[in-house]
Amino acid sequence: MNFNQTIKNLNRSLAKKKPLFFNHSWIKNRVRKSYNYIIENIKTESGCTDWDQVIRCLEHDYQKLWLKGIKPQKNINQYEDCTEVDAIINKYQKKLYTFLVQADKEDKKTCDEISIRLVRTAQKGNLLARQKAKDFIKQLVDYWIDNRNFQHWRGYDDLIEKNIDQCIRCYRYSGSFLVYLYRTLEYSGRALRPLEAFSLDENSSITEKTKIESVVKDSETGEILIYRSRR
């Protein structure tokens, strides 16, 4: 028995039995050899069974049936545990560049794996994992904005963070987390209007001066308080 055989057996059993949904117990009772292989060999960094790795390799229609109808646990105790996060980061240290650029399908797959591990840890209540996931995923979204048809998201940082946070909370066993996030941003961004780009070297229609000449700074901190003339 190996991983490919395990996935093949699961797909075949699901096709034959046609369950409305399935979970760990269903696999244990109906595909025992595959179940035994999974719990003995497919592990997360913390030593738990990595069902994500299994389910995301099934045929897409069967992925949707995994734990279908079971609501996410509420009132999860929040905590901070850097060892859980470090275990994930250390394992994928040489692959973190995939959040900045993805050269091929293997990079996309690896980036998805890292994202899912951080998201699952965040869903357990680890606030440090949630923040790390948001930081990394935001870099990926910036990559999409620069290289995909997501330019209309430029400047909507708060809304992007809100959508990322929602996806982290709501993600189930539905295959790729990154596809889930991409589709969420794609649909929720349809009504967005691109923010107006401007240069401080442009002339103001009111003062006829360049906008840089209208900058007002705090006398103590040097912070820019006003950098654009009203129209």
Descriptive report:
This protein has three domains: 61 residues, no CATH class; 107 residues, no CATH class; 34 residues, no CATH class. 23% of the residues are buried. Helix 1 runs antiparallel to helix 3 and helix 6 runs antiparallel to helix 7. A hairpin with a 6-residue loop joins strand 1 and strand 2. It has a two-stranded antiparallel ribbon. The chain has 231 residues and is mainly α.
Features of this protein?
globular; two-stranded antiparallel sheet; mainly alpha; 2 strands; 231 residues; disordered C terminus
Task: Write a short abstract of this structure.
The protein has helices at residues 3-17, 24-30, 32-41, 51-55, 60-63, 82-91, 105-123, 127-147, 157-170, 177-188, and strands spanning 216-217, 224-226.
Distance between the termini: 70 Å
Shape: globular
**How would you sum up the major sheet?**
2 strands, antiparallel
Mean pLDDT: 83
Low-confidence stretches: 214-218, 223-231
How much beta, percentage-wise? under 5%
Number of domains: 3
Strand arrangement, major sheet: 1-2
Q: State the helical fraction.
A: 40-55%
Number of strands: 2
- The structural class is mainly alpha
* Rg for CA atoms: 23 Å
N-to-C series of helices and strands: HHHHHHHHHHEE
